[in-house]
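Hello forum,

I keep getting stuck at the same step: I have a sequence, I want structure tokens, and every attempt I make locally crashes halfway through. Rather than fight my setup again tonight, could one of you with a working pipeline run this one for me? It's a single chain of 209 residues.
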Amino acid sequence: MNRRTIAKSAMCFGLILSAASVALAQAQPAQNSAAPAPAAQSLAWSPAQNIGMFAFPRNGQSADQQLKDESECYGMAKQRTGIDAQAPPPKGLSEEEKKAAQQQAANNAPQAQGTRVRGAARGAAGGAAVGAIAGDAGKGAAAGAVVGTMKGGAAQRSANAQSKQQAAAQTAAAQKKAEEQLLAQHQEGVDTFQRAFAACMDARNYSVK
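Reply #2:
Ran it on my machine without issues. Output:
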């Protein structure tokens, strides 16, 4: 191989390397442009969103600065109010406990007494009057007493059943009211915490919703 051939080969190899370098340089910016800019990334964790709120910087604060401010305001709100905004709502009684309490109330409900005796007396008196007309007051009184006892017993059972139902219903209503009060108190605590947090963030030039 003569010197002229070697020179041409070297020139061709150099041109190939130059073309490859230019192509690589053009492709590199395109790859870098696909990555999101750090400023456009959102907060990885936000104390505000954890309590159902959104904070927006008024003065262009960075994501790191906003996270710092939210964390500090969250701690300050917790310290000032004594409330843990992320605590779960109170559960109250289970369904089994509710039913047991309602059954206990029904068992302890006032029960009517003596209705059968009073029914027998009224029945006997009425039966005696009818028997006297028929000529046998004794038989009439006995028959009337039986009928009166049956009526009195039915009335007593009905009254006692109603008393049990009312006691169970009153207990169920009281349980529901107690649960509503617990939930209302919990929500009031969350609202108080959110107001304290928002006030702190507002003082640091954030808009909180």
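Residues 29-41 have pLDDT under 50 and may be disordered. If your local run keeps crashing, start a new thread with the error log.
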